[in-house]
# Entry
Amino acid sequence: MKQRKIPLRKCLISNQQYPKQELLRIVKDKEGQVTIDTTGKANGRGAYIKLSKENIELAKKRKVLERALETQDLTSIYQQLEEMACE
# Structure
């Protein structure tokens, strides 16, 4: 029996590749709305990060998501990510 290929994605903060299921996807759609994609299938430009408090703080400090998604203010997204990391 053939083994299925596991899709890998790169975390923006650590620059390491992980299986897609271990990462969280943040998406910017055509209208410019930025959302957290828990399914991994939403349309739009996506950026992947490993969900941890340290990674979220580094992303805020370095403005990694702003550059990757080509947008400005993501404070609400960072708040949602911090809430998810605390769970």
Observations:
- Residues 47 and 67 are 10 Å apart (CA to CA).
- Strands lie at 8-10, 17-19, 23-28, 34-37, 45-50.
- The chain has a mean pLDDT of 93.
